[in-house]
């Protein structure tokens, strides 16, 4: 599984650490970044993540998450020293200087790393404008900070390319994947280049069931094989474009349809509408998620190997429920 993952992710990654979940993989990536920076004599605390970003519900993963809804009633737990959040521009030309000013104004000391989802999933299916990931890369390079991409949601074909970062031409220093890798079994993975991966000794970090042994290794390898042999990233791109075109032409005027590949968001004007929409979809046997800062974005994330017939069913069900929710 490690070999297949590093092959898929391209040349710069040689090492993989396996964890039991996405959250644990994120915690590992941040711990590794801190250790690596400390070995270079950099003992600052600042790590930037994105507003609306989602990275899990454990300690550092929750602190990195830029969604207040998951932090209520947890003041001491959800604030980790040095973690700050940057706004994500929604449209237009990315202003690198302005982004740099915001980053420096918010950072409390030496910036160690930036953690970002290339497309923000749980936070409301936000596709940052072209140039945003490149700007993050440049800001990191100028500050000797590490760029960590959380591709737990977007990775392995979900957004129409094997990894979402591929569209930007920007590569991270650390890549984190999870979710579909185990096809339902628990696993997360942190990919690094040699110099990063070798900066800690085995004693520095471990977990009893990390990677969950031979079973998940075999499953993950099969998943990666199917992703490649089945052309699932391309299939996701095609199906996503087809579905988004159909939904855009029929969506009520106050619903925004956006996304990449088969990570599709429908932003409603209010959380009540999103909840009503989800209830009707569920009643018709279609599972959808709800996210976004206001919980007004419905997520459609069908399987990447969805058949043409099921894709049509998803489309017709969504259109029927559009009518129903708007008529209420
Ligand atoms: C982008 C992203 N990062 C991290 C996580 C956390 O992963 P897990 O739920 O496996 O701990 C998720 C889960 O939804 C996610 O979407």
UniProtKB/TrEMBL annotation:
Keywords: Aminotransferase, Pyridoxal phosphate, Transferase. CDD domains: OAT_like. Pfam families: Aminotran_3. InterPro entries: Aminotrans_3 (IPR005814), Aminotrans_3_PPA_site (IPR049704), Class-III_PLP-dep_AT (IPR050103), PyrdxlP-dep_Trfase (IPR015424), PyrdxlP-dep_Trfase_major (IPR015421), PyrdxlP-dep_Trfase_small (IPR015422). PROSITE patterns: AA_TRANSFER_CLASS_3 (PS00600). One of its GO terms (molecular function) is pyridoxal phosphate binding. Its cofactor is pyridoxal 5'-phosphate. It comes from the Bacteria. Belongs to the class-III pyridoxal-phosphate-dependent aminotransferase family. This is Acetylornithine aminotransferase. It comes from Streptomyces silvensis.
């Amino acid at each position: 599984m490690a070999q297949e993952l590093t092959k898929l992710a391209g040349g710069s990654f040689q090492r993989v650490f396996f964890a039991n979940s996405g959250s644990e993989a994120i915690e590992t990536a941040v711990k590794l970044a801190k250790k690596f920076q400390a070995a270079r004599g950099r003992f600052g605390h600042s790590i930037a993540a994105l507003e609306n970003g989602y990275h899990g519900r454990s300690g550092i993963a929750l602190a990195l998450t830029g969604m207040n809804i998951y932090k209520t009633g947890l003041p001491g737990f959800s604030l980790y020293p040095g973690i700050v959040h940057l706004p994500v521009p929604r449209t237009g030309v990315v202003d690198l200087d302005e982004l740099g000013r915001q980053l420096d104004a918010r950072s409390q000391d030496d910036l160690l790393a930036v953690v970002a989802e290339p497309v923000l999933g749980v936070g409301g299916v936000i596709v940052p404008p072209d140039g945003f990931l490149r700007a993050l890369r440049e800001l990191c390079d100028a500050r000797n900070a590490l760029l960590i991409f959380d591709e737990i949601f977007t990775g392995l074909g979900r957004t129409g390319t094997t990894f979402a970062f591929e569209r930007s031409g920007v590569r991270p220093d650390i890549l984190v994947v999870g979710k579909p890798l185990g096809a339902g079994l628990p696993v997360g993975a942190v990919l690094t280049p040699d110099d990063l991966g070798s900066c800690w000794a085995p004693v520095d970090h471990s977990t009893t069931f990390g990677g969950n042994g031979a079973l998940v290794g075999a499953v993950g390898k099969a998943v990666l094989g199917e992703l490649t042999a089945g052309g699932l990233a391309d299939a996701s791109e095609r199906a996503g474009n087809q579905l988004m075109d159909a939904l855009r032409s029929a969506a009520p005027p106050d619903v925004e349809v956006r996304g990449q590949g088969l990570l599709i968001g429908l932003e409603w004007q209010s959380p009540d509408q999103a909840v009503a929409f989800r209830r009707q979809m569920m009643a018709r046997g279609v599972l959808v998620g709800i996210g976004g800062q206001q919980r007004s974005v419905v997520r459609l994330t069908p399987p990447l190997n969805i058949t043409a017939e099921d894709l049509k069913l998803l489309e017709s069900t969504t259109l029927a429920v559009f009518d129903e929710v708007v008529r209420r």
